[in-house]
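Moderator note: this is an archived Q&A kept for reference. The question asked for a predicted structure of one protein chain; the sequence and the answer are reproduced below.
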Amino acid sequence: MKKRVLLVGLLSIAIACPSQVFAQTDAGKKVQVFKTSKAGDKDYQYQSIDMKKMQDQELLTDETIQIFSGEKGQKMLGIGGSVSESAVSNINRLNAENQQKIYDAYFSRNGSQYSVIRSTVGSADFSLSEYSYNDLPKGEIDLEQEKFSIKPDEDDIIPAIKRIQTYNPNVKLFAAPWSPPAWMKESGRRRSIIPSKGIPLVNNAVKPEYYDAYAKYLVKYLKAYNAYGIPIFNLSLNNETQNNPPWESGFWSTDATIEFIANHLGPLMEKEAPETELVIWDWVKSDNRLFFRDGFLGYNRTVLSNQAASKYIDGVAFHWYEVNVIDALQGKPTWDKNFQNLSTLKKEFPQIHLYATEGCQEMGPWINEWEPAGRYSYDIINDIENHTETWIDWNLVLDSNGGPTHDVDNKCHAPIMVNYHDPNSQDDDEVIFNPSYYVLKRLSKEIQPGTYQVKTDSTTTAIDRTAILQKDESVSLFLNNNNEEEKEVTVIQDGYYFKTRLSPNSMTTFKIPPLNETKRSIDDNLSITASSIEKTIVNRVDARLAVDSNHSTRWASSWTDQATLTMRFPNVQKLKSLTLHFQHGWDSQFRVEVSTDGQNWQELRRFSEGENNEQILTILGKDLQAKYIRFAGEKRATGNKYGYSLFEMMPTFE
């Protein structure tokens, strides 16, 4: 097929693909490339692509993607997964080595670096049994929640979360009840039994006379977890607020939601658990009223328009599920494409945060298959393009049958699955990393807390795309090709560009360095010195490499706790910000100081051991005057036998 080309003034396009570069390029403007694909790439890092400055009268192919790095969207919370009882039970069945492998894979800096997790308030379908925190014999009630206890979580879920906190003490926990205790409900049971979607054939609503009791129940949960050192960042009113599946569920009409939040739960949380935010809906993006009762827009518009309730509501949570009768009859999961509803709601209620809190491939385990990976990348990218701030996968780990579940057949996929070969031995257990794991890993590593979505534009609808602005002003671009054929695109940003070919059924990540030199106001006469340099015959690690604008070179100190790296500029200037890009040891104890004369130092910021867990850290300048800027190490990370190591030390001035 003959390909159309566009003649564009002031552009000069380099032709490149992950494995080959054909055009003359500018030194230092290298784009890192990572790909996961149906063909077998597992977050594989290809040869970097060189970028080229735009010039006059060059030919473009018709499929271009442009990044506007100066136009920020939402601030991101990150990517994560759910610590369900089923997931934790699968991990706990493994030997210590395989348990460590899974926790490292999801939460370490060499793994996915998940920054958010989700857990259930009481049991769900992916629990080993049915329970709440206040189950009572038929006919009994406990209005003051005197018999409340989180003991069911103390053997598995709480220890798992505490272990996750050793990787990231700032991990944010979303919590959602699937159902209130049975004695509070009209139906008298936590499970629906009759699957009826949004049609309430079984009345799963809370009795109004128990609204106060249920509010106390939820707040007791928040306080009990907080007592374990596990603050709940975000509490959902209910998982799938208007669903009636054959497992635990709770049905909330708009009127009941408004009454309960405005007059019961909201005031009590504000008084006794003010650190926790509240979200509503926690279900589909669809506005299909036949299957989803009020629908995404109908329900949320009604509740958020009520000022008495909405003042207590932080955001709207949603899932990726949809109903398609033809697909359902064929045993196929359905892809939800109602992304525009997110932008519509955000435009109408701009103060509301949007959180994707659950998604998983249903109807089978899908072991080593590409479809779940393609669906993750498709959904996450499009959600982010429509104001979503976080995206949480469902079960962290499932067994090779897609479970376990209790009293229901609901086989599902997980990014990591376990095949238990021998019930009498843990040594033969197989930990399976599905393609979906590698997609989520790359998304999570690039979409860390404090990054921003930035505007992109495209001449093609065949490629899903989103771009994330990093703290060092580099950009991570995600391009998802869910087609059976290769796609060729040109990427343009800040006066530079490159061309690349996207493999069929693949998600490719491009890490684009900061391209606008004016963002770094560093004089050519800058002097930099270090108190020590690591003695190595393998790599150069001298002080100058920490200011060379190359994020692959570094300064490294000798293996001592006390070490400094000092920048001296020709003139005193007002410091706007300072970005530190660490190689390792960033959770060590250190301080950053400024001086106008090199003798009298003023502390800009000090970090105690474990306080900072960011590899790329930006510190505001507080309008301080500086001719000298000094990084001063005080104590290396616990157990760290190495010195301090900085890829870049990057100040900006007014």
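Archived answer notes: Confidence is low (pLDDT under 50) at residues 1-27, 517-524.
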